[in-house]
Amino acid sequence: MHSLLPLIAAIVVFPGAAVSAGTDEQPAGIRSLLGQPLSAEALAPEDESRMKAQLAEAQAVWEKDRNNADALIWVGRRTAYLGRYREAIGIFSDGIARHPTDARMFRHRGHRYLTVREIDRAIADFEKAADLMAGRPDAIEPDGLPNARNVPTGTLHSNVWYHLALGYYLKGDFSRAADTWIKARDSVANDDNLVAASYWLYLSLQRAGKPRDAAAVLQPITADLDVIENTEYHQLLRLFQGERTPEDLLAAAGDDSGGSATRYGVSAWYLVNGRQEDAAALWASILEGPDWASFGFLAAEAEVANGE
Fold first, then answer.
1. Cβ-count burial of 135 within 10 angstroms (0-12 exposed, 13-18 middle, 19+ buried)?
2. How far is the C-alpha of 129 from the C-alpha of 136, rounded, in Å?
3. Given pLDDT bands bounded at 50, 70 and 90, which one contains residue 2?
């Protein structure tokens, strides 16, 4: 595939380097996969106040028992929700030192290594988590940012496989990503997990040169799935089925920062259908936005960095 870097370079405007007042920590040393400094996105005052209170509560529990693995995980997660990603990585590293056989520590640290663009370290952590959880029962992961029904949809196993597959995808290892997303999809039976894993699995198979296998992924996807939180992935799968148009999805997504998942999905659909310039234009629009911690932004960034 011909490089689109010259085209993208002409139209991408990267987020500025100013750090918002919404966090206590600058994202020191965090640069995009293209070498650009990344800035913390401002939180709404009420959200910031609530999240800081939740962090303080988690810290109080952890202070009572520094060897409480659950308490440590919540401190790390709530620190990351405030945009203090490097600090969160340090907390999970402490957790690994204290609980070296607890797969959850590697799972959560790996997630934040993805956020700070240390993809190889993220993959290593998720592979370690996969080794540690092998042969052990799965468990629901409680949500720190609950969905509308307050129903957790992910498990330890599904989240380890999902994030590991994403790491492979970002590196352009689409065959390995597909194999791993199958494990994520099959780890837990709910419609949110089905559509999230199937979305990435379809794209991975298409880009691995397996269009028939990709088409088979779409067979269980219907309009009446009971999707709670992954509605963007559900609609993108309907696009892949020919039941939606890219124009409709892009109009619904709008230009706000929350639309990166949809815009990246449409760009990937353009790419697998030979519309490279349209894909590049969407990557550029995503990279102009502020939501660099989202997976849609990260995937668009990887496309440009990998020279698609």
1. exposed
2. 11
3. very low
Does the residue 277 lie in any domain? no
Q: How many residues does the chain have?
A: 308
What is d(CA 184, CA 5) in angstroms, rounded to the nearest whole number? 32
User: Coil, strand, or helix at residue 140?
Assistant: strand
Strand partners of residue 37: 31
Residue 59 lies in a domain: yes
Domain span at residue 96 reads 42-136
Residue 227 lies in a domain: no
We report the CATH number of the domain holding residue 88 as 1.25.40.10
Residue 7 has φ and ψ, to the nearest 5°, of -65, -45
- The number of distinct structural domains making up the chain is 1
- Could you tell me the pTM of the whole model? 0.90
Per-residue pLDDT for 184 more than 60?
yes
Rounded distance, CA 165 to CA 182, Å? 9
**Residue 125 — φ and ψ, nearest 5°?**
-65, -45
Could you tell me if 138 and 156 are in contact, meaning their C-beta atoms sit under 8 angstroms apart?
A: yes
Write b or e for each residue in 59-89: b if 16 or more Cβ atoms lie within 10 A of its Cβ, otherwise e. Answer: eeebeeeeebeebbbbbbbbbbbbbbbbbbb
